[in-house]
Amino acid sequence: MARQFFVGGNFKANGTKSSITQIVENLNTQDLPKEVEVVVCPPSLYIDLVVKENKQPTVQVGAQNVFNKPCGAFTGELCAEQILDAGAKWTLTGHSERRTIIKESDEFIAEKTKYALDHGLSVILCIGETLEERKSGITLQVCARQLDAVSKIVSDWSKVVVAYEPVWAIGTGLAATPDDAQETHKEIREHLVKTIGKDQAEATRILYGGSVNGKNAVEFKDKPDIDGFLVGGASLKPEFVNIIKSRL
Ligand code: PGA
């Protein structure tokens, strides 16, 4: 089954009104391929700005985080209803910086994912192992545990995109090799076949994330289980466009 190529840009806590406007203006001037789905995730403060400035029909906007409850007395949080109200259609959940620095649990991430999906957002669900976990040979076990927390409470995965992001590859310049990434993506898909069923597993896009840039993106081109990228640092730079075009 053909899965639509997908490129996400995670700006993290970077940028200002001026620099983010420049990024969007640059994207607006590009001839982007119609068949590539692009989602940019600015800091939540700038979602409104990006939604208003974006003129590209294939570029959508997402939040980087969402809460697991409706709007209410949750100081500092952002609810799914507000993200939608601002014009964004997506959110990330489970980014490793939230798992490791903010100490979000698998269960909490699963609840956020479910709440977001139930209220109309699409979700880029991030998973991945740390260097210690990789060295101990438990990469798949970790990814399976993170996925299982979600599949336990979410049965419809049609609005979920999985981003496999080995923690050791994020922001380090040390991307996984295309062969290693393909091997893990294949195992992730095989695991999903067991938990959410063959049809859904085959339809679910699995992105690779971790030090993807304008040069190395093309090396992943022929890997059958790599359906796109989640890009951090390079999504703030003009080379993001090369990543979007890397499958042409
Ligand atoms: P990076 O980040 O591309 O800067 O490695 C990826 C991510 O954290 O999503």
Structure notes:
It is built from ten helices and eight strands. The protein has 248 residues and is an alpha/beta fold. It has one domain (6-244): Alpha-Beta Barrel (TIM Barrel). It has an eight-stranded parallel barrel, surrounded by four helices. The longest helix is centred in the last third of the chain and has 19 residues, at 178-196. It is globular. The two termini are 19 Å apart. The mean pLDDT is 97. 2-phosphoglycolic acid (PGA) binds next to strand 8. Homodimer. Belongs to the triosephosphate isomerase family. It holds the Pfam family TIM. This is Triosephosphate isomerase.
Question: What's the arrangement of secondary structure elements?
Answer:
Layout lengths: L5 E5 L6 H12 L8 E5 L5 H7 L5 E5 L16 H6 L4 E4 L2 H5 L5 H13 L3 E6 L3 H5 L3 H13 L8 E5 L13 H19 L1 H6 L2 E4 L18 E4 L8 H5 L4
Helix pairs in contact: 5-7, 7-8
Bound molecules: 2-phosphoglycolic acid.
